[in-house]
Specification:
Elements: E1 4-9, H1 12-29, E2 34-37, H2 44-55, E3 65-68, E4 70-72, H3 83-90, E5 102-103, H4 112-125, E6 131-134, E7 156-159, H5 162-168, E8 181-184, H6 187-191, E9 195-200, H7 206-214, E10 232-237
Parallel strand pairs: 1-10, 2-3, 2-6, 3-5, 6-9, 9-10
Antiparallel strand pairs: 4-8, 7-8
Helix pairs in contact: 1-2
Length: 247
């Protein structure tokens, strides 16, 4: 696949270092980059490395702008399980980024449709995304774009699949506390990013990762659309790549 570059790490920490170096290089070449950011367990190590790189003077976020992939519906920004809170904790509060240049969907929006339009406008107003960081779910979802009958183009409110709810309940005190819906960038927005950086760790993701890149392109496996993107970087550990040909 000519559009895919693979950076293979020995383990999660090595994968995180390789992914962080991609973002550092992006900010070095274009300090005013618009970065699309992700949450969840996969990018925690990457964000820690970037924060330490900032402390040592090796990366500068002062001119960067960020847009996050998604946010749970009905969680306030200061809720410990919200993705705004996650970003503040793991990255924004640890580097020299202007918080006014960081954007996350408003989970408390009274009018979800208007919030989606507003978030699409923000991304367009920023000039699009230079580098979009994503992970992949066990069912192939990217962002919160769940398996469906079509590839959603822009930001939308989605009802979360049971597999996604099950995967995320470890972050909450009770399973019933996991939100059932979330705002997410659409597949079209992700695909419009100049570069997509996909980070994957662990053998439990090996099968879906192989299916995404070597199976049919189908909205039943949302990540499979990445086969059509012009510039994908896959940073993954050996376990995640164990079913890739010649990996």
């Amino acid at each position: 696949m000519n559009n895919l570059r693979i950076y293979k790490g020995a383990d999660y920490n090595d994968m995180s270092r390789k992914a962080a170096s991609v973002i550092q290089s992006q900010l070095t070449v274009k300090p005013e980059s618009v970065l699309g950011l992700a949450t969840g367990s996969s990018p925690v190590g990457l964000y820690d490395i970037l924060a330490k790189a900032y402390e040592s003077g090796d990366v500068d976020f002062s001119r960067a702008k960020t847009v996050n992939l998604d946010e749970y519906q009905w969680l306030a920004p200061d809720d410990e399980q919200s993705y705004r809170y996650f970003m503040q904790k793991h990255l924004f509060s640890r580097v020299n980024i202007n918080v006014d240049n960081t954007y996350v969907p408003n989970g408390l929006a009274a009018d979800p449709e208007e919030e989606c339009k507003h978030y699409n406008y923000i991304i367009e107003h920023l000039g699009g995304i230079d580098l979009q960081l994503i992970g992949i779910g066990h069912n192939g979802h990217i962002g919160f774009n769940e398996p469906s009958d079509e590839f959603p183009a822009k930001t939308h409110l989605v009802n979360l699949a049971q597999k996604t709810i099950e995967a995320n309940k470890r972050f909450f005190k009770r399973a019933e506390d996991v939100p059932r819906a979330a705002f997410t960038m659409g597949i079209g927005t992700i695909m419009n990013a100049a570069v997509v950086l996909l980070i994957v760790s662990g053998g439990e993701k090996a099968e879906i990762l192989k299916e995404a890149f070597f199976g049919p392109i189908t909205p039943r496996v949302p990540a499979s659309v990445l086969q059509l993107h012009r510039n994908v970087i896959l940073a993954a550990d050996g376990a995640a790549l164990s079913l890739f040909p010649a990996s």
